[in-house]
Amino acid sequence: MGKPRKLSLYFHIPFCLSKCYYCDFNSYAGLSWLIPQYVEALKEEMQLYAKGIWQFEIATIYFGGGTPSLLPMNAVSCILKTCRELFNMPPALEVTLEANPGTIDQSFLTQLKQIGVNRLSLGVQSFSDSELKLLGRVHSAVEAKEAYLTARETGFENINIDLLYALPRQTINDWQNNLAEVIKLNPEHLSLYPLTLEPGTPLANAVASGSLPKPNADLAADMYLLAKHELAKEGYNHYEISNWALPRKECQHNLTYWKNEPYLGFGAGAHSYLGGYRWANVLSPIEYIKHSSNTKTKASQQPYFNSPLVDNIEHIDRDLEIAESVILGLRLEEGVNLANFTRRFGVELYSIYHQQQINELVELGLIVKNEHGIRLTTKGKLLGNEVFSRFLPKNRG
To answer: What domains sit in the chain, N to C, each tagged with a CATH number?
Structure first.
């Protein structure tokens, strides 16, 4: 009998103390009173899928948001207990919870570890109070460091820190100071993202009105290269375009996405990818709670076809699965392995994407090709979208 297939679980917790000025995520301030009902709705949704996914072994669990650290401890405990009751969960697996500084203390973190959360992802974003104010964050730089040190004192041995760069008015020296501060803390993992101005957010509106300067793409590239250089000196492996990790500390949950493997999302707006389909739940937490009461009569082996929680569903045919696997795989430092590709799809990569296409990207200095596969160069990482578009189904040779 072969090994069971792996499946990652994601829980979307859409509650926040306040909405950050750059945020376009499915998150809401002022709805924390819904948390007890929301947790019950999550349990109903888990029950909906229980029979259909029992053949899978749960690989990772991730609480994202929003601000999952706003959940009371009994809520996090209840969700994990329900997972253990309903799903095929091994005794030790990566369980991550996103937390914002200012929403956690030693008691919370101690209990979090006791119930099985073993990885913390801190949404620091900056170690500059002026930058935090610009972003609309509710914590200070001092609180960010204190949250990290408290997590260490509590015994967390796997911590990620999120930082944003290419902020309005941010200089290369400002960014170097942020890197110096995070290097002092020595977290196991770092996620560094350039600021994206999402339409309709306060920060995007401020730039559009001229009260803040427009992003500088060349400066953003310089900041990215500086991070790559400084973190390499400290022993961090740049294993994905926006992610760095100390040896053997890569985020296993996010590797599920980048390897285009199956995952199941629970909660308002959560996305899932399983059985040749990708689907998303209704965005509104209130609507999600309302619809969850109708799930008991809808359970089946393929509940995503008729779940009242699902807002949209997309069939992922083989051509699209191949394209997405290549594009996502190229985000990883290891790139796309030819043998793994053939094992998964039963055909060789170069029988789908002709050598001429690949060689053109090599000549442009965007990818490297060898006997094992293809991967992005540093230039290719800076111009990722230009590379990825070449691998969409309509662009095959």
So the answer is: 5-257 (3.20.20.70), 318-395 (1.10.10.920)
